[in-house]
Structures are given as structure tokens and as C-alpha cells.
Amino acid sequence: MQKLKLNLLVGLMALVIFFPSCNPETDDVPPLQVEQVVKRAIFESMRDWYYWTNELPLSLDVSQFSSNQDLLDNLRFRPLDRWSYLTTRAQFDAAFTGQASGVHGFSFAFDEDERLFVAFVFDAGPAGQDGWRRGWEFIEINGRSISSYRNSNGSYSFDLGPNTIGVQNTFKFRLPDGSETTRTIGKAAFQTNSVLHKEVYEMEGKRIGHLVYQSFRATQGLTPTRSQEVEDAFAFFETEGIDDLIIDLRYNGGGSVAVTEQILNYLAPSSASGRTMYTNRHNPNKFSNNRTVNFNKRGSLELDEIVFITSRSSASASELLINCLEPYMNITLIGDNTYGKPVGQFPLSTFSRVLAENDVELVPVTFAIANAEGRADYFDGFPADILVGDNPARDWSDFNERRLAAAIAYLTGGSVSARLADHKYFKPVWEMIDAFEGLQKEFPMY
Fold first, then answer.
1. From residue 360, how far is each of 69, 85, 88, 177, 344 by CA, in Å?
2. What confidence tens digit (pLDDT) does each residue in 182-199 have?
3. How is domain 102-190 classified at the architecture level of CATH?
4. Which of 20, 246, 250, 292 has a CA-to-CA distance to 205 between 20 and 30 Å?
5. Do 12 and 18 meet the contact criterion of CB atoms below 8 Å apart?
6. Where are the domains of the chain?
7. Is 192-347+366-428 CATH 1.10.300.10?
8. Confidence (pLDDT) at 6
9. Model confidence pLDDT, tens digit, residues 69-95
10. Would you say the C-alpha torsion 372, 376, 377, 382 has a positive or negative sign?
11. Which of helix, strand or coil describes residue 28?
């Protein structure tokens, strides 16, 4: 019996030696082996969750790819997928709760004459703290003219250095009064604000609310996931007793679906409560995850009309907001056609021990979203009802700002004059959404 136990123990030890651990967290696993294990986890997770899983190969030699990013680039369904990306869980969580780091906290926008302006600033960022405002025109960046940043394909490449706290850049501006100023600021860590501007205007006997909303970000620590800024903004509009609302999404690249639901429940009429807000659709492996979300009306707003100011930088959750409201109320889009992202994503490290232990966050397209009428295929974006060019030389509440002026004209008179529409429309040569990939494409800033 002792001999049998000894033989069994030797056999088990041999198995352990012959089949070494594949846990990438152990110290004695060669780096190359860890790399291949992580790549296999990415491929397996994509096979399991990717919305276009049927476009993926059944098996794959992951060692042929030079990196995790190279693998994902080759797996993406190129005809439609412009969004799947890799990051870390910490970076993902920070972005979706508005915690920026290693940036100045501002955005660019061109006008029709190819002049470059500050499009918006975050209040707590270095640019906001330095007093920058929408409408300031850039004359030089680090001693170079703006035209010198134009690249060979006619677009622009603005290299402001690594996203590292303390990195400095110098900007020369022409201010709205014609004076010039030069500012040097560093990059920092700060909390962003999603509500860039809110105001109520008395026009033609109507009270018109105006909300400039930059991104669908949750407030860290709130449960369930929601935005305190959103709650405060709608409490303000309710107190002010608005009749109509202008929501400016022209620079809003998306964000949290939970925050989108929060806003939808404030905007929808009471008659929509209990009815379908949206249905999400997963791949055939995950049909059991399909679910329908219904409206649950919040607040006292009963709006006659909502005007959305949109652009090609209005994407993802911005489009979800529009799509879900369309079956239930009158909405009008003023500005430009939206980006075209009718699909959603969530991080997959929760479902993969290998990805979680190696701090690799895979965020592929995992579902499509349909509204109450089944509309879920808008990869070309939503067309604007009234085309009006951007006007970054004007601040948010300036009634000469073309898109705001068009929205007010439509709400007060039912139409927009040719002076504002069509012949004032132009497509910018470059937009912020063009400058970034992955997680930063949803929350672009410099």
C-alpha cells in the first residue's frame, strides 16, 4: 500500500512538471507565454461576446500577432466597427466618471474660414482655471502658426506632447474684442463637468431652456449609476417652468448608457412611462442577455418640443437619446448629421480572469440598440432636419451663434431663415472626433 501511494505521488508530481501552470500571474512564467495567454483570452472573449462574432474565425494562432492591439485590429469587423478598443479598467472607470489626467481640459473647433477656436473648456481644468472661453481664436501654438499643423491629407495633427501631468504648452490667442494674449499652461488631473452651460430665455411668450451637454458621465460614488449634474440641471429647468428645450450635443461623443436613461426619464412625456425606451440585442451566443428597458418618468417637465443641436461629433449615447425619444415626441435636429453609432460596448475583464489579472480591459462592440419602433440601423447617422454650420467664434448664450439662433427661431416661429440655414452650412475640415481612437474617441479633449 505504501508503495502504491508513493507511485501515485510521483505520478502526480510528474503531471505538475509536465503541465506547468498557465496562470500569467505566477513569477516563473516566461513573458512570451504570458503574452500568448492574454492574446488567447482576448480572442476567446471576442468569440464569446463580440456583436459580429459570426465574422470571426473559429480558431486562430494568436502568436502571429505582434501585440494585443494588433490582434484586436485584425479581429474588428472593418466594414462597421470603428470603436472596439483596449484600455485598463482604471482608465475606463476614470473616463466614465469624468476623472481626467494629463490634459489641459479644452477642445478645438474650426469655422468656415478655417480659423481655429476654443470650442469648450472644463471648469476645473488648467484651461478653465486660466480663464479660457469658447470663442477665443488660436493664432499660434508653441510658436507655430495653425496652418503649420496641417498634414498631407488636408486634415490637422496637433501634437501637444504626452498625456503627462506637468507637460506645458504655449498658446497665442485673439480674443473677441480684438486684443491678443499668450498663455502657457500645464497638463493636470481634474474632475470634468458634463454640463457646459444651462440657461432659460424668454422668447415670444415662451420660456426656452438651453442645455449644453458635453458627455454622459456618471458621478463617482452614486448608486445606482447616475449623474448629479443631470439631476441639478433638470431641477433648474423644472423650477424655471420651461416650455421647450434646446439640448446642444454638438461636441458630445457619448458615454454611459445609465446616464442616458436618467436623462431620457426626465425628457419623456408622462404618457411614455412604462413603455419601451429601448431594446438591446446581443450576438447569438448571448441572446439570453437581450433586454428591454422601459421609461420611468421622472420630474415634472412635459415638453412640447425638443431641439437637438448636433454635428458629426454627436455619437453613441447622444444618438441613443435621440433615437429613444423619436417615437414619443416632436424632436428636431439642427446643425449637422450625427456620427452613426447604433451599437454599444461594455468592458469584458469581468468575464475573464486572465484579462482581469493582467490589467487588460477589452471593450468591443457587444450589442445593438433599437428604439420602440425597432430602429437600430443608423450607421450613417441621423440626418439634421436643418443644416447650419458651427459657429465657434460665439460663446454659448450669444444669440448670434448660428445654431442657437436657428434653434430659437424654429421654436418661436416654426422655421429658420435662409440667412441661417443651408448657405451658412459647411463641413469642418477637421473635428475633434477625428483626432482620437479608442476610449479617447468617446471623450475627446486636449
1. 11, 11, 5, 49, 19
2. 999 999 999 999 999 999
3. Roll (2.30)
4. 250
5. no
6. 102-190, 192-347+366-428
7. no
8. 39
9. 999 999 999 999 999 999 999 999 999
10. positive
11. coil
